[in-house]
């Protein structure tokens, strides 16, 4: 495997770690140790049913294949080169060689921005461009705050996702752990491109948060929040608010974005008596928001648009791909399993790929929802 060859890829289903490791190693084929100056990295995604056996699985894989580092996350469902695995315990693995001097694992979970910068001391400083592929524990409260500081105080670019699944979610960074943030950090000489796609369509207009309290919208556009919200979504949806809240969310515009980018959060509740709206975000009075509608057709069109753009950035080919998609996407938004992945692979040409369905998606140092994040090794 040279610096320009495609990565290797393997997938296996079942719940017996030794059998899984043997099947994955068999699909990878005979591997010699990585040549001097290079390391072999295994990007691994496991479904939550396998979490309790993750340590044994890693131990068996190390016996069977000369892989220097393992890094990855866990999901209720995972993706391999050809399938989205929802209903069976599954492991997907992508293996590629990278320059040894350009790779650093975040092996010990970090829980703050300061811990992250200390973990990378001697490898990359905040002023030097770097790429971070992160896996985060869903119980870590301030993921968004850490990403915000990365965006404001460094030249780094982070992608990745928050693990999904059972309460004892695990992540992998040479070992198995269950807290904080782990992942892979790459110097800027490792060629990567990344883009994201959102599964929502904005309703017309932006709106002022005239009065807020914590995560409660009290007044919107100068009037009580609920009547204003009803007018925005229209008479038909207003007749059944419970149904409407199933696919109408609130969007927060990204400052300075020239593409109309926004972060989506759920509308978590309605107070009919006081005419209030509760949302899944701490609010800033006076800021502007938009409302968005989730629908499969718009999500598919935006995915196709993103794939065309990212393909144009890879004229010399793609070695491997990591795709992190929201739990609310996949078969829940595209009707059937494999539709979303199949769309990605038709556009990319069937490249080596691993990924998982996340509890939150990381792109460009921000935390998103209802989003697909594609990171390509070019």
Automatic annotation (TrEMBL):
GO terms for molecular function: kinase activity. Keywords: Kinase, Transferase. Residues 225-365 form the FIST C-domain domain. Residues 40-224 form the FIST domain. PANTHER family: F-BOX ONLY PROTEIN 22. This is Histidine kinase. It comes from Thioalkalivibrio halophilus.
